[in-house]
Structures are given as structure tokens and as C-alpha cells.
Design goal:
- With 550 residues, the chain is an alpha+beta fold.
- It folds into three domains: 276 residues, no CATH class; 114 residues, no CATH class; 58 residues, Arc Repressor Mutant, subunit A.
- The chain has 17 helices and 18 strands.
- The longest helix is centred in the middle third of the chain and has 20 residues.
- The chain is elongated, with a radius of gyration of 30 Å.
- It starts with 7 loop residues before the first helix and ends with a helix.
- The chain binds adenosine-5'-triphosphate and magnesium ion (2 copies).
- The site of one magnesium ion has 3 residues, from strand 12.
Length: 550
């Protein structure tokens, strides 16, 4: 494998065909199955393969930096704003002027505790802050305040599901361990001015609160890691602890990747830093797994190094050697006392105002319904398919839209979901609109579906009305149906007349039906619906046509 694929382009080509073997629970959680992201050439050549040791597999762990959604920074009262003019949100502390001291922002601590609870972590009622030293122009103090020794939350898990399998229609469920969540400061930003060969520093981001979610090496391929990132993003957005906009750097992923033979100790990891989209996470990891396999198979060694993902070439490139060179000289932060949070109001010591401290029970009570629970409830309560529950939960506002329609209509949720997925989402996607921007309200859609359910209009007529509602949202649904003359034909004679006209126009079809081929009746029905603009009740129409062609 290595001999023929030493160049970058060959590697890239193979990477696209990467096979990642993952042992993973299926949705029932009862049995294990293997999934393949795609097939590699090697897998298709069993003769070559059989002489070799078992194939190496990837091992992946993520470290995710999530910017805390708060109005001010972690240790200062400066505002947090993504697109503010450079250096407009910088306090003396953020710029590390001598004599300034950190003051912990309670909102950031609450966000970390809520996130810890949502990720099934144990919350440390006493946690500590440390200094981690490194020298970058955008880190004015020369160190970052973080939580290396005792972080705020530990020993959690992140469960996520995604559609996988051969046809991408099976729900795969997986759980990865969360080692810890630590509170830390973000750095500033270096802006490189290539024309004048200089670097400018913007400290607006310096000191913004971050939660670093550190996972254990429990994943095996890019697809899994991307699904984990998407799920964490949704959880954080649901909690409101991070806005999760990856393009704006609110969620940044470092992917730790190694390869080994199953059953043997883990290999040396390389860390691909600062990946800013879930899709790139998948691509970077799959590339990196394949690169490391190539290196080892051609007799080389994998370096413990930091790499960067280049989205243009789809490759990872070395940034710096990590081992040995990086000594962070960790030390306790002398300007911050231990951080105490309390299990319940009852455990808050005398003399401390419970209103001014973080109480875990209080935050637990505020936890919203999380994405995983939402999906399960949607499937159990409304009997809808897993893939539909995914879309409902992932699209902002869609689940709320769906549930409001359910409340106001007599139509079965399982039938109704088709209207939401096909008609509503189809129209929104075509026009690049969000659910909240839909001109058709849930109430209006419910009225339309009620007319359909009560037999006042046919489903094809309802689709026409839906399009009209889109164009004229101010008009009442009943009014539109009348205006378009789309109510079902209740006059039997009129329907018989239309049927006769259609039969006269299609004598060939009538002959085939009379000859015994009853399936062709559907064609005749379609022609009548076309002629009547979908105004014939299908059951009634079938009865009439059956009689007239007998
Ligand atoms: N052999 C391995 N293969 C893949 N991932 C690994 C391996 N060994 C450790 N990891 C993962 O690497 C990460 C180590 O993160 P940690 O924050 O402890 O150290 P760091 O990466 O050196 O520090 P930082 O990136 O924060 O400066 C964890 O997510 C851990 O699960
Ligand atoms: Mg880390
Ligand atoms: Mg790291």
C-alpha cells in the first residue's frame, strides 16, 4: 500500500476511499456492528491483505474549545463581541497591565456547570486555577489562566447518534467519555498584514471565557468525530452556554489522532489544531489516519506534533514539534482563590449569600430538554422516523413549528411530518430561509391540513393551496380555497360528467381496463384529477370510475 502511494495526491485519493472500522452500538444498544465510512482499495483485494498483520485502525479524541455565551469576559468586565472594531473591548486586565487582578465572572462558572451537568459530569465543588505559560504576541501576560489540576467538571460522557450504514439510513448511537471540562481564557488574535510584512494584535478576544471539553480517545474515524461535534454544538446551543457558530470561532476543535493494531497499546498522537467546521473535522481526521498508516507501513515513525488542516488541499501539515519543546511551566494561579460551588442552598455556609454563589441543584432545575431526549420523545410520542427526529431537532425552530401544528390539527403526526419535511422544508430550502422566516405559520398549515382531513379538499389541491399561501400569507386558508375553486366536488352529476369526458378522450385506457387490467384505472384517475384540478375525492372517484368502466 505504501509503495504506490507516497505522494500527497495519492494519499489524498486513498483518503477519500478510506475505510474506517468502528465497533459501535446500534440504536437499540443491544448488538454491536461495524460500519464503514467508505471502502478502501485494500479491502477489495483480500489476497494481498491476507498475508499482512490485521489492518491498523484510527484512534481519535477531541478537545473542543467553546466560547462561553456571556456579556462580559471570564475575569474582567469588558464586553464580548465578535465583530467589534479591533481593541475596542479591552480592559487593563485583558492587556495585562501590572497591578490588575482577575475577578471571576459568575455567569461563566454557571455555564460550565450547566454544560458539565448536560454531559453527565461530576461537578467538582472545589476547583483550582493554574497558569499555563507560552509566548505568543496575542497572549500579553505570557500565560493563560486555565484549570489544569482540578477542573470544574470531570468524568462525563457525550452520547450522539448519526445516520450511517451502507445507505446512510441506519441510526448509529455512540457514547464517548468526557475526561474533563475546564474553564480558561481565550487568547487575542494576531492579524497578519502581508503587504507591509507586519503583524497586528487585536485583544478583543483576549480573556473571553472558554470551556475546554476534553474527551477520551474513544472514536475511530472522521465521521464519528464530526457527529460528536455536531451533537455537542446542539447541546451547547440548547443550553445557551455557547452560541456554537464555528465560522466565527465560537467552537474550535483540536483533533488528537493516532493509529494502532487493535488490541495493542495506543500509538503516538498527532494533534490537528483549530478546525473550524464539522465537515473539516471529518476530512482532517480521515486524512490524518491514512497518513499515519502510510508513515508506519513505510517504516517511518509518527511524530508527537501539532498539525494544521489545509481545507484547500484536504491535507494536514506540520506546525511544530510538541514533545520536549513545549514546557508550559504550569503553576497555581496566585491571584485566584479556589473556586467553590455548592450542591444545594442548604450546603451554602453561613454568612454567604446563596444569591451570590453557584448552586448546582438550582442549575439542574433549569436544564432544558436536551437534543437526545427530544429525539426520543418525538419518536415515542408521535411515532415518527429517526431521520425525521434528527431534522426536527437540528433545524432551529422546526420542532416547535411541528409541535404547534400537531396541537392544532386532527391529522396524525406521522402523516403530518411529510408536510413539514417536504412542503415546508422544500420551500424554505429553495428560498434559503430559516424556519422562523416561514411566511406560512404553523396555525395556517394546521388550518389547511384540517380542511384536508375533513375531506373538504384533496391532497393535491392542498399542495396547490400551500403554494398560494406561500405567496399570499395574509389571506385566510378558506378564502384561498374558495378563490381558487379547489373545494372537493360534492355534486355527483358534475363528477360523472368529468369522468365521461376523460373516458371519451382516452378510449384506449378504457379498453385496457375493461380487458381486465385494473391497474390502469389509476391512470384514468390521474387524468380526472388533472381535469378537475384535484377536486375529486379519490375514494369516491375510484368507485365512480370502477362502475363506469365495468
Ligand atoms: N494515543 C492517543 N491517540 C489519540 N488521542 C489521544 C491519545 N492519547 C491521548 N489522547 C487525547 O489527547 C488529548 C490530550 O489533551 P490534553 O489537554 O491532556 O493535553 P494537550 O493536548 O497536550 O494540551 P493542550 O492541547 O490543551 O495544550 C485528550 O483528548 C486525550 O484523550
Ligand atoms: Mg487540552
Ligand atoms: Mg491538546
Amino acid at each position: 500500500m505504501a509503495a504506490s502511494c507516497s505522494g500527497n495526491s495519492a494519499l489524498l485519493h486513498k483518503c477519500v476511499q478510506l475505510k474506517s472500522m468502528c465497533n459501535i452500538h446500534q440504536s437499540s444498544g443491544v448488538f454491536m456492528r461495524r460500519i464503514w465510512t467508505s471502502r478502501s482499495k485494500c479491502q477489495l483485494q483480500p489476497k494481498l491483505q491476507s498475508k499482512r498483520a490485521p489492518q491498523m485502525v484510527g484512534v481519535v479524541a477531541l478537545e473542543i474549545h467553546a466560547q462561553i455565551h456571556a456579556t462580559s469576559k471570564l475575569f474582567s468586565s469588558s464586553r464580548v463581541g465578535f465583530s467589534a472594531p479591533p481593541n475596542s473591548h479591552v480592559s487593563f486586565f485583558d492587556a495585562s497591565l501590572p497591578g490588575t487582578l482577575p475577578v471571576l465572572n459568575r455567569r461563566c462558572v454557571e455555564a460550565a456547570v450547566m454544560t458539565g451537568l448536560a454531559l453527565n459530569c461530576r461537578i467538582n465543588t472545589k476547583s483550582l486555577f493554574d497558569r499555563k505559560h507560552y509566548f505568543y504576541a496575542d497572549l500579553p501576560a505570557g500565560y493563560q489562566i486555565t484549570q489544569q489540576r482540578v477542573p470544574i467538571a470531570v468524568n462525563g460522557s457525550l452520547s450522539f447518534s448519526y445516520l450511517g450504514g451502507k445507505k446512510r439510513s441506519e441510526t448509529m448511537t455512540k457514547s464517548v467519555r468526557v475526561r474533563q471540562i475546564q474553564l480558561e481564557q481565550d487568547s487575542g488574535k494576531s492579524l497578519h498584514d502581508d503587504q507591509r510584512s507586519r503583524t497586528l494584535i487585536d485583544l478583543n478576544r483576549a480573556g473571553v471565557g472558554l470551556m475546554e471539553v476534553v474527551m477520551e480517545p474513544d472514536m475511530c474515524c472522521g465521521e464519528e468525530a464530526a457527529a460528536a461535534v455536531r451533537e455537542l454544538q446542539l447541546i451547547l446551543q440548547t443550553l445557551g452556554t455557547c452560541q456554537g457558530n464555528m465560522a466565527e470561532g465560537q467552537l474550535r476543535v483540536d483533533a488528537n489522532v493516532s493509529v494502532h493494531h487493535p488490541g495493542e497499546p495506543l500509538g503516538v498522537r498527532a494533534e490537528v489544531k483549530n478546525i473550524n467546521s464539522a465537515r473539516f473535522v471529518a476530512r482532517a481526521i480521515d486524512y490524518e489516519i491514512q497518513r499515519q498508516i502510510e508513515v508506519l507501513e513505510s517504516g517511518g515513525t509518527v511524530l508527537n506534533e501539532t498539525r494544521a488542516f489545509d481545507s484547500k488541499t484536504g491535507t494536514t501539515v506540520s506546525m511544530r514539534d510538541k514533545e520536549g519543546l513545549q514546557d508550559y511551566r504550569f503553576m497555581p494561579e496566585p491571584n485566584l482563590p479556589p473556586l467553590f460551588v455548592y450542591e444545594s442552598v442548604a450546603t451554602v455556609p453561613d454568612g454567604v449569600d446563596p444569591a451570590h454563589v453557584v448552586v448546582i441543584d438550582r442549575l439542574k432545575a433549569q436544564l432544558p430538554e436536551l437534543p437526545g431526549a427530544k429525539r426520543t420523545r418525538l419518536m415515542e410520542e408521535y411515532g415518527i422516523l429517526p431521520e425525521h427526529s434528527f431534522t426536527l431537532v437540528s433545524e432551529d425552530g422546526l420542532m416547535d413549528f411541528f409541535e404547534r401544528v400537531v396541537q392544532k390539527t386532527k391529522m396524525e403526526p406521522r402523516k403530518l411530518i411529510g408536510w413539514v419535511m417536504k412542503e415546508l422544508m422544500g420551500n424554505l430550502n429553495q428560498r434559503n430561509l430559516k424556519v422562523t422566516q416561514s411566511p406560512v405559520s404553523p396555525e395556517a398549515l394546521a388550518q389547511l391540513l384540517n380542511l384536508l382531513e375533513s375531506g373538504f379538499i384533496s391532497s393535491s389541491a392542498a399542495k396547490v393551496v400551500f403554494q398560494e399561501m406561500w405567496k399570499a400569507p395574509e389571506k385566510r386558508v378558506e378564502h384561498l380555497v374558495k378563490e381558487l375553486d379547489l373545494g372537493l366536488i360534492s355534486d355527483q352529476e358534475e363528477l360523472v360528467k368529468i369522468c365521461q369526458r376523460v373516458m371519451d378522450a382516452h378510449p384506449d385506457l378504457v379498453q385496457v381496463i375493461r380487458g381486465g387490467n385494473k391497474k390502469v384505472l389509476n391512470k384514468l384517475m390521474g387524468a380526472v384529477q388533472k381535469e378537475s384540478k384535484g377536486r375529486a375525492d379519490p375514494v369516491h372517484l375510484r368507485n365512480i370510475l370502477e362502475e363506469m368502466t365495468s
